[in-house]
Design goal:
The complex is a heterodimer of chains A (about 170) and B (about 150).
Chain A (H helix, E strand, L loop, with lengths): L1 H19 L3 H21 L3 H27 L3 H4 L7 H18 L22 H10 L2 H22 L5
Helix pairs in contact in A: 1-2, 2-3
Chain B lengths: L21 H24 L7 H21 L3 H26 L3 H31 L13
Helix pairs in contact in B: 2-3, 3-4
The chains are: A mainly alpha (about 170), B mainly alpha (about 150).
Amino acid sequence: MTLFIVFGAIALGAALAMIFQRNSIYAALLLVLNLLCVAVLFLSLGAEFLFASQIIVYAGAIVILFLFVIMLLGVDRTEILTEPHSFQTRQIVIGGISALVLIGAIAPVLTSKTLSAKLPAVAKDFGTPQAIGGVLFQTYLLPFELTGLLLLVATIGILMLAKRKPK
Amino acid sequence: MTDPSPTPVEPPVAAPVVVAPPRRRRRALGALALVMAVIVVVGIVLRGREATVAMYLFLSLVLFTIGAFGVLIRRNALVLFMCIELMLNAVNVAFVAFARASGNVEGHAIVLFVMIVAAAEVAVGLAIIVSMFRRRHSASVDDLTLLRW
């Protein structure tokens, strides 16, 4: 419970600070903070394997990719690093209204009795790599193979997109 | 004939000491204090209770909403992608919470798939941003007006 409150609050704070942060490098670092806190929340839910893969894949690979591109594009251009315009009032008002509507529409569901029941005890191997591997290679074998294909297609696509056209 | 006077060595330039301006430092400290206050208040309100799925789902909902709000207010394409990551991650929290509640590990497998797809999506999206930047010298989504009517 303490874990949930502390890291949940830090995750929320980091997320809020991220979307209002003009400097995109700071925004990326705040995203790392948010992802690490969510990783700890995964751990508190008994998902050890996902805790590790969240840190490795999200915080380690994806955000580093972001930082790479920011540095690559923005070394001598300030408009990449910082957003020149202030946020428009219209956008903030419309965005705020839709955010409140979204929360207000879903939040009543969360008060239902089944959702606020105590978390049940789980099996000892819950969330271990063995358990997840068993599910991945038995129930979800075809989707697993398809994600491999997806990664291959993405790699080829990136190479085609990022290649400089010969003059 | 050797030049008797060696070429003058330029004195090393002292690296400027980078200190965050007071305004920014004060803002960061204010944010930190706010987070601490939220922790204390929520801790008092939820004192003695055990974490339930509903709490995790609420956190996931708020994170998702913050991400969606960010997509609406930001213009920098890179930050837009970060907000999308935030939303995907919020959904992952919900999946893991439900998996814990039902004691079923399949939710974890789905989170793994979401992570893989997010990684592929970010890589392709960043490649698109790089090639767009090469062509238009801007990473602002406001400059992509080709389809506007």
